[in-house]
Every structure is written in structure tokens, then in C-alpha cells.
């Protein structure tokens, strides 16, 4: 029984890792993360701190908040490829 649970846990972990791969170019796969936007209103005021993130659309955003605004405006599933500039 414990062996089956271990196999199921490994399979679920593998699915979570594989599901996050986002093709950026023809051959390259980059792992991304979802920005946290659920707490934001329709037209939020983002803090003025510069904390850049690189989006899956290839755009460098001033912060995760600005990426969330772009997601709301464009209705695109833009995720964070990495912290910092693209």
C-alpha cells in the first residue's frame, strides 16, 4: 500500500513539473511561475518600487503588479519566466 502511494505522489509531482514548461523559442523550454494577481482590483495602484520580472511574452515588467495589469488588459496568460530583466 505504501508503495502505491509513493508511485502516485511521484506521478503527481512529475505532472506539476512538466505542466509548467513554457516554450519560448523553437527548441528552448523555460520554466515559469504564475504571478499572484487574485488580490488585485480592476485598476490597481502598483507600488513604485522597481522589482523587474520577465514575462513569457518577452517583455520586462517593472514589477509583478505591472505584469498582472498587463494580464488583465490583454486577457493573455502571461507568466513570470524569471525575476529580473528579460
From TrEMBL:
It holds the Pfam family Kazal_1. InterPro entries: Kazal_dom (IPR002350), Kazal_dom_sf (IPR036058), Spink4-like (IPR039932). GO terms for cellular component: extracellular region. PROSITE patterns: KAZAL_1, KAZAL_2. Residues 1-21 form the signal peptide. It is found in: Secreted. GO terms for molecular function: serine-type endopeptidase inhibitor activity. Residues 31-86 form the Kazal-like domain. The keyword Disulfide bond applies. Keywords: Disulfide bond, Secreted, Signal. This is Kazal-like domain-containing protein.
Amino acid at each position: 500500500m505504501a508503495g502505491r502511494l509513493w508511485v502516485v505522489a511521484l506521478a503527481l509531482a512529475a505532472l506539476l513539473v512538466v505542466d509548467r514548461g513554457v516554450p519560448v523559442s523553437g527548441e528552448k523550454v523555460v520554466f515559469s511561475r504564475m504571478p499572484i494577481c487574485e488580490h488585485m482590483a480592476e485598476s490597481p495602484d502598483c507600488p513604485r518600487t522597481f522589482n523587474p520580472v520577465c514575462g513569457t511574452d518577452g517583455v520586462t515588467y517593472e514589477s509583478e503588479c505591472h505584469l498582472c495589469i498587463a494580464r488583465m488588459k490583454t486577457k493573455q496568460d502571461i507568466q513570470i519566466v524569471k525575476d529580473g530583466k528579460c
